[in-house]
Amino acid sequence: MRDGKLKMKMTDENRSKHEYLRNPLIDERYVAVYCHEGAYICTLEIARPADGDSFGYLIDFIHFEGLEFDSVQDAIDCLDKEGNGGERWDVDPEEIDEGALSILNALAEAMKGKNENESLQILDSFFEENNYGKKI
User: Fold this and answer.
1) Measured distance CA(89)–CA(61) in Å, rounded
2) What is the DSSP letter of 8?
């Protein structure tokens, strides 16, 4: 997928084939108006404020669920700030290297049944112990 301006309906065929990576707030009423580092920035094709619709922009990636941006540039800035480990946002998860996958699985296992504060403590100590530097 090429980065830049576009106008594309957000149908299932046009979105990530991995449903769990999609922003669940985005449906077929949305159009992608820009693609940045493989992430679609979307807005409603027809917004009806009387029905509770917004004029904002959403990023079609689960990591950004619940975030709405006032402009395409704000969404791009957020994508740049969050980063994706130097990878594009549309990288096929099946292509993730096995070392990274085993780390993610170990962290997920360690956080099972923990509340948010306990999970954050586990992540903090992981980053500290493994010298990964500053967290986002």
Assistant:
1) 8
2) E
- Residues written for the chain: 136
CB 95 within 8 A of CB 59: no
CA-based angle 78:79:84, to the nearest 5? 135
> Rounded CA gap, 68 and 43, in Å?
10
pTM: 0.60
One digit per residue, the tens of pLDDT, for the chain of length 136 reads 566 787 888 887 777 766 777 888 888 899 999 988 888 999 999 988 888 888 999 999 888 988 999 999 999 999 988 876 556 666 555 555 566 667 777 777 777 888 878 877 877 787 677 655 544 4
**Cβ neighbourhood burial of 112 (10 Å; 0-12, 13-18, 19+):** exposed
